[in-house]
Amino acid sequence: MIYPVIxxxxxxxxxxxxxxxxxxxxxxxxxxxxxxxxxSVKRLSGPGFARPIILTNADFRFIVAEQLAEIGVExxxxxxxxxxxxxxxxxxxAALWLxxxxxxxxxxxxxxxxxxxxxxxxxxxxxxxxxxxDAGDLVTFGIRPDRPETGYGYLELADSAGDFxxxxxxxxxxxxxxxxxxxxxxxxxxxxxxxAGIFLFAVAGxxxxxxxxxxxxxxxxxxxxxxxxxxxxxxxxxxxxxAALDDISIDYxxxxxxxxxxxxxxxxxxxxxxxxxxxWRESGGDADGVVTTGAASAIDCTDSLLRSDNENxxxxxxxxxxxxxxxxxxxxxxxxxxxxQDVKVxxxxxxxxxxxxxxxFPRDHRPWGWFETLSLGTRFQVKRIMVHPGAxxxxxxxxxxxEHWIVVAGTARxxxxxxxxxxxxxxxxxxxxxxxxxxxNPGKVDLHLIEVQTGTYxxxxxxxxxxxxxxxx
Length: 473
Hints:
Helix content is 23%, strand content 32%. It has helices at 36-43, 61-70, 87-101, 119-134, 180-189, 203-213, 218-226, 239-243, 250-255, 276-283, 343-352; strands spanning 2-7, 53-57, 77-81, 106-111, 138-143, 154-157, 169-175, 192-202, 229-231, 234-236, 261-266, 291-294, 296-299, 305-308, 315-318, 323-327, 332-336, 363-366, 369-376, 380-387, 395-397, 401-409, 412-416, 419-423, 428-431, 437-440, 447-455, 464-467.
């Protein structure tokens, strides 16, 4: 049985402003109705696949749970990394956890933000890799390149120039990201693949790889797994031993040093959506090469991407060529398509000037739902809040602000002090400064309300929690 190990802790800054540190690209609906994370989970499912193991961080744990529930998938485990330490510690933690639960298993390690339209073809490539895995090899998967690309590392096949059939064959070496001249030469040679960062190995096999090539990682990672604490439906890895682990990729830690390597070429369509130019390519434009998404219109444009993720903000392009224009409620990106990889520089610039848009998503996702700020002044803030059916905010109070809640859809059960009441559509309730209060959604549909805050300080840290079903401090 193959256990998918899905890594979803990255930030995806090259897809700003849609992808940000607080809500990265794997959780966004970039090219279809499903998020990249959901599509990845479904792709690694079906006959021969066990339930997935998810590696993520504490900030994303409830987003992961919510998106898995939306597609009806129950995970085998969700491991919470105390901090990002690159892919080697994540892979090792999953292998150690599996060695205790399912020691004879194979594990398929994959990022959560790739686009692979032909899931059946990819699963066939995985099946081809099982043969080499059974023989004791560590297997990686390479993508047949359709253009010279300087943004990817490469894998060099030992032989069989021009043969990209999905069968396991010997891997000669890993190649770092090349310049354009070398990328062109490698594509023409027919013996190079893009390194997809996808791996298949037996649990015992990859543990042997760590023992041989990165033995210093084993003890602290084992301690982190052994001392992990259950938290609702998650497993929190112990932070102190985790902090002692090297910040290193699985490629550098093990794969590039191992001798028992095989690679399976994959000739189907694939993208890691590493920039808006990749989104443009994968979205399939019109006859003029124009892609429009959301409230966007193009007039006499060519080879451009126009996108609005705010239904109240229309993006209109006139006479554009080779342009990216992406609008969010709080930020707009306009760039030449050839500068798509420089979007991460924009994020660095915004961080340097202290702009919250650099990392903070306009919609703040919480375990009970989400909220977004509609208006913010010196002593007031207006928010839109959505609470899932059956969900509840913590019993809390505020030191510096009072609140007024107006229900606009659904029904809320509201606690203020010792009083509990049902508040329905077009009704409201007032929460004085310092009052203990809680909001719950007892219904079967989403609860929407408008919250008006007034006070001397309106920050999210002005919360004293007394009870919380989500165990937040």
